[in-house]
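Weekly structure sync - notes
Attendees: PM, LS, DV (DV joined late)
Agenda: review two folding runs queued last week.

Item 1: First target. Sequence and structure tokens pasted below for the record.
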Amino acid sequence: MSWKALAAGLLCTLSCAPVLAQDSTALASIDWQPQCTSKGRHAPMQCSAQAVQVLPSTKLTATLVLSIQDNGADLNAVLPLGLNLPEGITYSVDRGPESPMSLRTCLPQGCVLVTHLTSAALTKLKSATVFSLSAHVGGQLVKFDFPMEKFAGVFEQIR
């Protein structure tokens, strides 16, 4: 999946974020959602798993999109504008060691970051309990924690 196609899909996802931010009950559970698209009637399906997290205290929104590849998965994240990029953006699985993410581009709706997960890392992710994104926004460390309980089931749907 190209980053332009990903960005277009994420723009649609992010347009729903203000509605989610107003309803605190929507924040209680993060559901991983499968999404499959095709470039044409005879083109192969490209599937991904997506999750959106809204921080109740700040209403900041983060979106994760995991696209399965032959040699693992591409992990894309959209974080809000105002990131302190020199501080870096990292992710971790089950509060383990942090790994850096690379900035792809920034759009009016947020900054798109990307990393590649190996097959071994993807296997670990299927049994994880939490996936965390960390960034500095406005001088503060902001951590988005994505519960992973439902991820394995969605992964099996899109594989």
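Item 2: Second target, run right after the first with the same settings.
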Amino acid sequence: MVADMDYESENQGAVRICLGVVTGAHGLHGLLRVRTFTEVPEDVGAYGPVQSEDGTREYDLKVRNRTGKGQILVHIEGVANRDVAEALKGEHFYVPRARLPEPDADEFYNADLLGLDVVSSDGKALGTVRALHNFGGGDMLEVVDDAGRLGTVAFTRVAVPEINLLARRVTVESAAMLWSGGPNDKAGPWDRREDTDG
């Protein structure tokens, strides 16, 4: 995987990738704390001006230094004080997918997985990739099936042995999928109800 990036895909003709999000202000002079989704945090400003989520604003990011916890300090011209910086909290920074370098063989951007078909190792259709998450315990693929049920699978080579971007398909081990409402084929012991008198 080249980068741990969030993504946007509503308009596949103009795919943009989120490189970071403003988490707050730093100091009194308008510096921003930014949580990056790039492999190298300082690269958040390496691909030219970034756009706001709605695409109406453009920012030229000047990276100052790392702050820890995967965050960096960024300066944007015109953001001169803490109040203006705080107003940008929650702003996501996007660039067009075309500005990013092509990944090496057997590597990809997480954004490239969104919408791919998900099949089991025996070829059974399971759904499509809806999202990628990392809540601190490792990357997870979120899958939605035709009925709208959500499932997750650890994004490891064991649980996800094949990704074929040309075929637009991700292969997963069925046993590794966790579905909302219980396992896909039968209810677990926690779903069984037994009548008891007492």
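Discussion on item 2: The radius of gyration is 20 Å.
Action: LS to circulate a short write-up before next sync.
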